[in-house]
């Protein structure tokens, strides 16, 4: 595959992964934990696709010393790193929102018993 096409695939899949991770955070904030986890599954699938293209690109660069990195490639790398960071934070935020929801439910149950 042509270099520019490989980089575009990284950008597209990584961008999708990041967007889906952000959507998962919004779902978690609304208390829709199962929907948030489903978005994260989709996000992870997109990140895996980005990784496939990234690995192929790295292999190509490793086997051809004449290959030079360019700004477009750096842009693709930036998208990958942003996606990875977004997924990491989304995973933690979903966990926090899930626990908060559980604690709110427990508090409500205690208040109902007292009232």
TrEMBL record:
PANTHER family: PTS SYSTEM N,N'-DIACETYLCHITOBIOSE-SPECIFIC EIIA COMPONENT (PTHR34382:SF7)
A Pfam family hit: PTS_IIA
Keywords (A to Z) from UniProt: Magnesium, Metal-binding, Phosphotransferase system, Sugar transport, Transferase, Transport
GO biological process: phosphoenolpyruvate-dependent sugar phosphotransferase system
Protein name, per record: PTS system, lactose-specific IIa component
Gene3D superfamilies linked: Phosphotransferase system, lactose/cellobiose-type IIA subunit
Keyword Transferase set for record: yes
Keyword Secreted: no
SUPFAM superfamilies listed in its UniProt record: Enzyme IIa from lactose specific PTS, IIa-lac (SSF46973)
């Amino acid at each position: 595959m042509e270099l520019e096409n490989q980089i575009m695939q990284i950008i597209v899949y990584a961008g999708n992964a990041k967007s889906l991770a952000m959507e998962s955070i919004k779902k978690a904030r609304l208390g829709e934990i199962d929907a948030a986890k489903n978005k994260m599954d989709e996000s992870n699938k997109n990140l895996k696709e980005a990784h496939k293209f990234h690995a192929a690109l790295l292999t190509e660069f490793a086997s051809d010393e004449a290959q030079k990195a360019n700004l477009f490639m750096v842009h693709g790398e930036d998208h990958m790193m942003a996606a990875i960071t977004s997924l990491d934070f989304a995973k933690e935020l979903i966990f926090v929102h899930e626990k908060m929801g559980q604690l709110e439910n427990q508090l409500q149950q205690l208040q109902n018993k007292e009232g």
